[in-house]
Amino acid sequence: MMTENQDAQHSPGAPATLPAELAGQWIAWNRDMTEVIAHGSSLSEVRQEASRNSEAEPVFQKAPKAVSFIG
């Protein structure tokens, strides 16, 4: 799990930066979008995990796929 303190560039009201290993996965954030509480390949799987983590109002997001940069 990632918390706001691990992301020095995080601004209030904006989601924290996601680690590269979560690219392309479904993400469940806590209500404040400061911590990833669940992640996985399907939305139903992530909903179940978020529910088990006792988050009353999770925010779901599909993380963008990783992009290769050549420069």
Strand content: 15-25%
Compute the number of strand runs. Answer: 3
Number of helices: 1
What Rg is obtained from the alpha carbons, in whole angstroms? 12 Å
Broad structural category:
alpha+beta
pLDDT < 50 runs, ≥5 residues: 1-12
Question: What is the typical, i.e. mean, pLDDT?
Answer: 79
N-to-C CA distance: 31 Å
Q: How much helix, percentage-wise, in residues?
A: 10-25%
Secondary-structure element sequence? EEHE
Question: How does the major sheet shape up?
Answer: 3 strands, antiparallel
Shape: elongated
Strand order within the widest beta sheet: 2-1-3
Can you give me a brief rundown of this structure?
The protein has 71 residues and is of the alpha+beta class. The chain is built from one helix and three strands.
